[in-house]
Structure to design on (302 residues):
């Protein structure tokens, strides 16, 4: 089976977009995979991971937080993300401005509620915390194949890099030569108190993911963003993590949550080349079994 046949059920419905997707898959058949760039929450993880602690405001374990903190955090999530950030009828610029406000309020809430290095370390030292995160089937098999084939993986997230590092290391995939993490990292004072800002002055939220952050976090030239790049995401903004440019082909694979509207489906099919919908849990299993092996085969042939 060729890649068109393997991923045919996930093609966009629009004929123009189907042609573009087919042409990109042909390029991957000729050249294999060079780089993988993926979102974290609800892309590598399942939809059931809504209660995971990966977004900055999700460190809401009652052992560390007051009832007021948990209530305010969840209200902000509903007000800024569910009611506006995910509304595909609004212009991207307006959704991005809403996320700017949302993240500013999240960090202010952490400062007011006494987030500290101790709180974060205590929270992440507990196996039951790290077990909250459920990954899609096939994710780590795909990672393993990429590592064997020397294909770098960029995990690009609007969540907390402190948390993502610990979760991936707990699952046996630590940050290293082939795995790079681009995310928000808390900055702490020498006494461990939250400084009220991030290590980087640039906040990463769902609509500010771009290549500027990649170079800033891992350094210029560390990963060659040329050739064939596979991008995974679950939000419309994720599709812009890697831009189209001469000398590269970006195959964008999107995950569309359950209960989506028709407008949202159309927006996703315009942003992504392949769309896995609802409980399509075989997405990474397919990529591990077929795409991953094909990438390894092409690398060997080269």
């Amino acid at each position: 089976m060729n890649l068109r046949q393997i991923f045919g059920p996930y093609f966009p419905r629009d004929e123009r977009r189907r042609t573009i997707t087919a042409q990109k898959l042909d390029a991957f058949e000729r050249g294999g995979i060079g780089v993988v760039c993926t979102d974290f929450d609800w892309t590598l993880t399942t939809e059931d991971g809504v209660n995971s602690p990966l977004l900055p405001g999700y460190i809401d374990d009652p052992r560390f937080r007051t009832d007021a903190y948990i209530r305010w955090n969840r209200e902000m999530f509903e007000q800024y993300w569910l009611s506006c950030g995910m509304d595909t009828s609004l212009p991207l610029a307006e959704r991005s401005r809403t996320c700017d406000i949302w993240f500013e309020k999240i960090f202010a809430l952490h400062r007011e509620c006494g987030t500290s290095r101790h709180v974060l370390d205590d929270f992440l030292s507990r196996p039951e915390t790290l077990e909250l995160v459920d990954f899609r089937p096939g994710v780590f098999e795909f990672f393993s194949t990429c590592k064997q084939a020397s294909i770098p993986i960029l995990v690009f997230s609007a969540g907390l890099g402190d948390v993502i590092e610990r979760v991936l290391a707990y699952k046996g995939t630590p940050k290293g030569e082939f795995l790079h993490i681009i995310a928000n990292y808390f900055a702490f004072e020498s006494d461990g108190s939250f400084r009220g800002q991030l290590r980087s002055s640039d906040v990463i939220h769902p609509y500010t993911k771009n290549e500027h952050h990649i170079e800033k976090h891992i350094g210029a030239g560390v990963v060659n963003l040329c050739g064939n790049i596979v991008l995974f995401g679950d939000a419309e903004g994720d599709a812009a993590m890697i831009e189209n440019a001469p000398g590269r082909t970006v195959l964008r694979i999107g995950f569309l949550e359950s209960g989506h509207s028709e407008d949202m489906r159309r927006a996703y099919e315009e942003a992504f080349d392949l769309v896995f919908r609802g409980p399509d849990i075989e997405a990474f299993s397919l990529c591990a079994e077929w795409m991953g092996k094909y990438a390894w085969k092409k690398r060997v042939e080269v």
